[in-house]
Amino acid sequence: MEKPISCQKILGEIVSLISLQYANVLVNSHPQVAQGVHNHSYFRSDPMTRVYYTLLYVYGVIGTPEERDYVSKMVNKAHRGVRGRNYNAMDPKQQLWVASCFFVASLTVQETFFGLLDDQSKEVLYKDATRFGTSLQVPLEMWPENVNEFWEYWNHEIHHFEVTSAVLHVTQDVLYPHNIPLWLLFVPPIARIFTIHWLPKACRARYGLRSTWVTCVAYCIFVFIIRWVYPLLPEFLRHCHVYYVKRELRRYLK
Question: Domain ER-bound oxygenase mpaB/mpaB'/Rubber oxygenase catalytic: where (predicted)?
């Protein structure tokens, strides 16, 4: 019997990791969020550690109650010191934006690689994704009531954000990361192809990204290969990242 649609089901597939760059670009489109990252994060100097803790949070939230409680406390502790004149990582409005990006990234992965969702399934996925915010400081009533209202909120926000120097600096670090292992150097250029084609046109222009015939062809080839070859991979390979993160969470929970 097929599992019902959920963030756990989508993000449990290793192909979902290709959306990390896209999600981070969306997250840091918010000028206050980007300012906090720019002033306090070690993403530029140590992107792999940043990715590690992001994965701990994401898979902790969609994990057991114990895992969810642990990662919520972990993130709250880290966020308490991230504040400045015009930003505060504990601000529910800023957290709502970040959590919204997890929903959009999950939906994008699902519909790109595994098939379009009907309206009812989108609502189910949306309600499931609210936990990324409610696990922190975002009360459930702050979320738009349904998917249609969510897209009104989303489109208004993403097209009205101020493009600050912090946004540009952090986004460049996300798109062109430094200090990553040699065996992962091929990942950012491939991820950029997906990011370019998933971002709204206005957002691409902000960050100097262009959709060309080369990126279009590459995108179509990658999507075709993943759609047809990925389902043939053994399950342990498709879910190996989850096994790793779960092992790390168990280590912290001891």
Answer: 14-228
Residue 28: give the domain boundaries.
Answer: 7-253
Cβ(83)–Cβ(89) under 8 Å? Answer: yes
**Residue 82 — pLDDT band, cuts 50, 70, 90?**
very high
How distant, in Å, are the alpha carbons of 5, 117, 135, 141 from that of 110? 9, 8, 23, 26
Q: Is residue 125 part of a domain?
A: yes
| Residue 1 belongs to some domain of the structure | no
In a domain, 216, yes or no: yes
Q: What are phi and psi of 88, to 5 degrees?
A: -160, 115
Model confidence over 103-139: pLDDT tens digits?
A: 999 999 999 999 999 999 999 999 999 999 999 999 9
